[in-house]
Amino acid sequence: MNDAPVNAAPAELSSEEVSEQKAVRLAKRERLIADGGEAYPVTVPITHRVGEVRERFGALQPDEASGVRVGVAGRIVHLRNTGKLCFAAIQAGDGARIQAMISLANVGEESLQRWKELVDLGDHLFVSGEVISSRRGELSVMADGWQIAAKAVLPLPNLHGELSEETRVRQRYLDLIAREQARSTAVARARVNASLRATFASHDFLEVETPMLQTVHGGAAARPFVTHSNAFDTELFLRIAPELFLKRAVVGGLERVFEINRNFRNEGADSTHSPEFAMLEAYQSYSDYHGIADLTQQLIQNAALAVAGSHVVTWADGTEFDLGGEWDRIDMYESLSAAVGVQITPETSLDELRALAEANDVEVKVPSHGKVVEELWEHFVKGDLVRPTFVMDFPVDTSPLVRDHRTKAGVVEKWDLYIRGFELATGYSELVDPVVQRERFVEQAKLAARGDDEAMRLDEEFLAALEHAMPPTGGMGMGIDRLLMAITGLGIRETILFPLVK
Q1: What is the pLDDT of residue 5?
Q2: Is 423 annotated as belonging to a binding site?
Q3: What are phi and psi of 490, to 5 degrees?
């Protein structure tokens, strides 16, 4: 019942084997129907879930009977037919398994023969009978009746082998059947989302929804997906971020709001990026980037507790990782200066920065002071950040939606949270001055004119909302997929149930 060993034989069948088995199984389906039965009944009389039976009767001793009858169902993942006694391991959706025993003495010769002729690995099976423990101590249902609950026309892969990564991603349903890790990751994601909502509820946040189709893309530096509305005869963009609409809600008086949403960015895909991904964004009036950092740490630590029962999580490879305690907060410019051995400040010229980038083979597509500083920081510092770390105070020209720092010239009150060397979340003291915001949008428009596909567009409707006065606010955004990466140690395609693949 455990995952296949790492060095197990490949699990996939050849196309010829699949075709042959499909033909045989289709014939069995036809026979089930011709004999007056059903290959896909609308329901079966289940009385207990497999996990419930295991929990209640798991302490039975070998060769002991419970005296209790149950009706259970699940997918057949192991099948062994002998003369007068047949065995099947049936697996529920949560991975819980129980053995079904089909004996001549209990079901009769005709039923036993139909079992041998019609039942295959992969079928969904209903069995009813007494809960017992076999002579080998295997918790079982000694069947006095059985029924196909759904006939599998295609065979399962070899569950004792290892599915290829391609199969796991493209046919996630097979991955969920075959691997406990796949099932536990799906469960962990649900627990993380529930925990996030519970933490926000404890802080009096309101969950809201904002548009996925937008007339102006904004809220992040990213290239959008473009589509067309026939009804409105206009170009639309799939949301790259919900930020500008969530801020409208804050202007309207919803002082603490959050959204767990789908975002779409028409960019590269790798071990930490997916074109479609889940994002959490939250805004809290009368807070700032320090307060929102405290909240973010609590959100993540509570999510770890929900999944692992501890702030120390165990990754898929067995590594333990500690998300507990107070997290470090470091300054971007100071940490970069320490790494390169040269003092770099917001006053450092673009020429000096470009020379340093060229000397270290750091490429910047559309150079500006802030872009070069951030690329240099990623080159020299990012890879060394393993423990959770808030990187504070970013260049002003790369952060058009962020308030100027209250004491430091040339930087804004923004942090990025790094865990295991990748960015997990970002937080701001939000820019709420509509005059400065307009100036920032104009600068972004200039970058766009120079060929920056990720630059934001001027959004007059958002500016009109700001002109009605937005209170001082702290905001944050965090990738749900990346949060799962931090908790499970998996790559992004493993944390997304059905990732986009080419």
Answers
A1: 37
A2: yes
A3: -90, 165
